[in-house]
């Protein structure tokens, strides 16, 4: 019996059993047709992460933020155009991210727990859970420290960065 894609007629499986050897089943869909025909119905990354009940940013391999859900945008007090494509330090308003060397390239960046945790997750594939991370926000002249608990998880070619709490203040505790 043969299985043939009902859309493109690609042969899917050939079963050489004697019974029904002439039968053709055409109510299956090959992977290529499924990818092409069902693509418009898949949620966007933003739609997907907006359904998560904690602040989540999607970070690419060079440290730029690809997307942030509504909870992350609320905490960061930013809209997507101020987040997407920008380095993590710029998005989090790190005091050192706007120095001439740029985010990830100053002497301060080597000790950045957020950056190091995301990089480690990319390189090792290991998730991290509720890692304490401090950040100097503001400018290099006028700044203040803010504390986070962060978690990371690698999903395909990105890292999901979850903000578990902000400032150590219980009212900002976000994920169990």
Please give the structural blueprint:
Elements: E1 2-5, E2 11-14, E3 24-28, H1 31-38, H2 45-50, E4 56-59, E5 65-68, H3 70-76, H4 88-91, H5 113-124, E6 128-138, E7 143-155, E8 158-166
Approximate shape: elongated
Q: For the residues shown, what is the average pLDDT?
A: 83
The unreliable regions are 168-176
The CATH class name of the largest domain reads Alpha Beta
| Share of residues in helices | 10-25%
Q: Count helical runs.
A: 5
Question: Could you say how many structural domains there are in total?
Answer: 2
Largest sheet composition: 5 strands, antiparallel
> What is the count of β-strands?
8
CA radius of gyration:
23 Å
Structural class: alpha+beta
**Order of strands across the widest beta sheet?**
5-4-8-7-6
Beta fraction: 25-35%
| Annotated CATH architecture of the largest domain | 2-Layer Sandwich
Succession of helices and strands: EEEHHEEHHHEEE
Under CATH, the homologous superfamily of the largest domain reads: PAS domain
CATH fold category name of the largest domain: Beta-Lactamase
């Amino acid at each position: 019996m043969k299985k043939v894609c009902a859309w493109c007629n690609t042969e899917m499986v050939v079963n050489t059993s004697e019974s029904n050897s002439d039968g053709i089943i055409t109510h299956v869909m090959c992977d290529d047709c499924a990818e092409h025909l069902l693509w418009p119905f898949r949620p966007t990354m933003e739609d997907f992460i907006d359904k998560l009940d904690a602040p989540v940013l999607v970070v690419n391999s060079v440290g730029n933020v690809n997307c942030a859900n509504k909870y992350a945008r609320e905490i960061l007090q930013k809209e997507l155009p101020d987040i997407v494509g920008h380095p993590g330090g710029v998005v989090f308003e790190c005091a050192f991210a706007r120095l001439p060397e740029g985010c990830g390239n100053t002497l301060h960046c080597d000790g950045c727990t957020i950056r190091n945790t995301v990089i480690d997750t990319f390189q090792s594939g290991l998730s991290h859970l509720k890692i304490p991370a401090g950040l100097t926000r503001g400018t290099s002249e006028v700044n203040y420290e803010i504390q986070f608990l962060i978690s990371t998880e690698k999903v395909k070619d990105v890292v999901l960065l979850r903000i578990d709490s902000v400032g150590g203040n219980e009212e900002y505790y976000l994920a169990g």
